[in-house]
Amino acid sequence: xxxxxxxxxxxxxxxxxxxxxxxxxxxxxxxxxxxxxxxxxxxxxxxxxxxxxxxxxxxxxxxxxxxxxxxxxxxxxxxxxxxxxxxxxxxxxxxxxxx
Length: 99
What we know:
Radius of gyration: 29 Å
Distance between the termini: 60 Å
Shape: elongated
Number of strands: 0
Mean pLDDT: 84
Structural class: mainly alpha
């Protein structure tokens, strides 16, 4: 759980999270931070944000696909269960009015 502290002015600071990293991963993070002229903490924040955004996008796209598929299947099955009816008369023309 992230902890939130108050500053000396009483305003709340951003939530803090502690993470324990293996030496190799910490070295890679430090390398990337130096390459982009960032602090290690800021680089970790950027990478976490990119990963979270990517996973949320992936999750939402899978959710939409499953929802669309279920709607399509239910619509198709309802159409297939309907009895066919004969149309009466010739099709009507639609008049479009100009504004």
